[in-house]
Amino acid sequence: MFKKILKSYDYSIISVYILLCLFGLVMVYSSSMVRAVQWYEYPADFFYQKQKINLLIGFIVFLFFAIFPYKAYRNKKFLIFMTLMAVLSLFAVTVFGHIAGNAQRLIELGSRKIQPSEFVKLSVIIYLSAAYANKQRYINHLNKGVFPPILFLIFVCFLIKIQPDNGTAFITLVIGTAIILCSGMNFKTISKLIAICLFAVLVLSPFIVMKFDKLFTEGNKDRFVGYLDPFGTYQDEGNQLVNSYLAIGSGGVKGLGLGQSVQKLGYLPEPHTDFIMAIIAEELGVFGVGFVLLGLAYLVLRAIFIAMRSRDPFGSMLAVGIATMLGIQSFINLGGVSGLIPITGVTLPFISYGGSSILVLSIAMGILTNVAMFKNYEEKYGMRKQNPEEALRTVQPSIQQKYQFRG
């Protein structure tokens, strides 16, 4: 039994997860050493050492969630506790949170800072997946099956928005939307939801226009101005994006070499977090960027494949949520670095510096690995692998009971 379980694990997911984390650790050291000394007056390896601890904790957590059966998350008591903690943590950060980057989204616990909204993303994935998996019998009933989880999603996104953290709120909303669309609702129900959403947007549009200044901070507006005209606002709003362009353009195909970045010498703010991909492009060129993109793309596509092959609706929706979280977060980060979309402050999965991000992603990879293990185990050692005689012995009692009942 134990050997069968070990053979059922998807070691490609584990390998790519570890490779991306180790690559990210190297790049955190390369991109942060100058800033650590010049800006914070820390040792050159300060952020590297902290990220190393983050990865060690993350890997231990990953192993736990890769072993722990994911089906236990459907327990109602666990779901109530998890959603309550998610909401309370968002309220706590609103009242007691530490302000960083024009947003109040961190809670200080001793020498470490935790970003609750990162964990809330994972809570939304688990809750919506479990809720809709438990409502499969009446999944197309709007009042009973559809709306209750959606109301929770909207409430959580609102709490994240008022921090304000528009990037994480948008990611959470997209994750929830993907799970809803893949929950098993029929086309008619989904059409009704789309119509309701469009109607809500039309009703709220005048309010959004009237309260635009309050809904979006000066920092949000500056980022949008810098996105529209980065070179015209190089000295102010566009400075970060222009320096990102310079880093990407300087790297070319081969890159300047590991540790040889010029933009990390004080020109590009926060090179080890939001804009670490610009440093990768500058130092390692197309090959470094390609390695990261291929790794992230593999995890996203593998998660989608697991979702399609899983026979358990709960496991399938968990995989969809995790794939969406990785995909949309990567797109938003890379879009901001390349100027495709406005800068949002969202980190690059597995690569950027950040304890909360690494911990949440490690938990997500552990859950995905466990879902894949159950799927593989059912495919290899389930009914499909039984010979005809074993299958007949399995179903014979139920057949006999059926005909006895009829008689």
Automatic annotation (TrEMBL):
Catalytically driven reaction(s): [GlcNAc-(1->4)-Mur2Ac(oyl-L-Ala-gamma-D-Glu-L-Lys-D-Ala-D-Ala)](n)-di-trans,octa-cis-undecaprenyl diphosphate + beta-D-GlcNAc-(1->4)-Mur2Ac(oyl-L-Ala-gamma-D-Glu-L-Lys-D-Ala-D-Ala)-di-trans,octa-cis-undecaprenyl diphosphate = [GlcNAc-(1->4)-Mur2Ac(oyl-L-Ala-gamma-D-Glu-L-Lys-D-Ala-D-Ala)](n+1)-di-trans,octa-cis-undecaprenyl diphosphate + di-trans,octa-cis-undecaprenyl diphosphate + H(+)
Main location: membrane
InterPro entries tied to this protein: Cell_cycle_FtsW-rel_CS (IPR018365), FtsW/RodA (IPR001182)
Pfam families in the record: FTSW_RODA_SPOVE
TM region positions: 12-33, 53-71, 78-99, 146-162, 168-186, 193-212, 275-301, 313-332, 352-374
Biological process, per Gene Ontology: cell division; peptidoglycan biosynthetic process; regulation of cell shape
GO terms, molecular function: lipid-linked peptidoglycan transporter activity; peptidoglycan glycosyltransferase activity
Record bears the keyword Glycosyltransferase: yes
Membrane topology type: Multi-pass membrane protein
EC supergroup of this enzyme: transferase
A GO CC term attached to the entry: cell division site
EC numbers for this chain: 2.4.99.28
Family: Belongs to the SEDS family. FtsW subfamily.
Biological function: Peptidoglycan polymerase that is essential for cell division.
Listed name of the protein: Probable peptidoglycan glycosyltransferase FtsW
Organism per entry: Lederbergia citrisecunda
The organism's taxonomic lineage, starting at the top: Bacteria, Bacillati, Bacillota, Bacilli, Bacillales
